[in-house]
Structure formats: structure tokens, C-alpha cells
Amino acid sequence: MHSSVLLVILLISILPMMNAAEWLTNTHNPKFPGKCTISPNMILNEGVSVKDPNHKCRQIICGHNGMTIVQNCGVSALSRPCRYGDYKNIMLPYPKCCVRHIICK
């Protein structure tokens, strides 16, 4: 009984930090068939995922025929007077890098 209550409390406290956002974009380039052309310097094979070099904590996944999935940490709100600070460790892989400092005044 006590362990079930603790588990529920733990899940409730963690859920706000688990927000994520995901969108699709077409990065097909006829010069590189079957690949995702993220930039002139970043061309990915289908099935490859990389951390976005232009963002602190975002993942890029190359899908079929240039369809790209971009995943980031999403947005969530905290009750006042608290707010999110910077990411705790941007060196961690996505989504572990999404954990942020919480600042309360």
C-alpha cells in the first residue's frame, strides 16, 4: 500500500518534466536521394538520429525519403514563483538533456 502511494507521488512529480514536442519536416534533396539534408554540412542516412548542433537539447531523426522528425523538450509551466532555469546537462543525449534547473524566489 505504502509503496503504491509513493509510486503515484513520484510519477506525479516527474510527469511535468516529461513534456516533449515533435514535428516533421521534409529535408529531401534530389542530389542526395534517400537521405536527409539538414544543412550543406549535415546529410544523414535513413534511420540515423543525431543531436541538433544548433540547439541545446533537440534530436533530429532521418526518416524515409528525406522526411525528418525533430524532437525537443517541449514546454511546460511551473506554479509561481518558480520558473525554469537553464538545462542541467546539455552534454547528455536527448531526452536526458531536457532536465532543467528550477528556480523559486
Automatic annotation (TrEMBL):
Residues 36-104 form the Single domain. Pfam families: SVWC (PF15430). InterPro entries: SVWC_dom, Vago-like. Keywords: Secreted, Signal. Residues 1-20 form the signal peptide. It is found in: Secreted. It comes from the Eukaryota. GO terms for cellular component: extracellular region. This is Single domain-containing protein. It comes from Drosophila willistoni (Fruit fly). The gene is Dwil\GK24349.
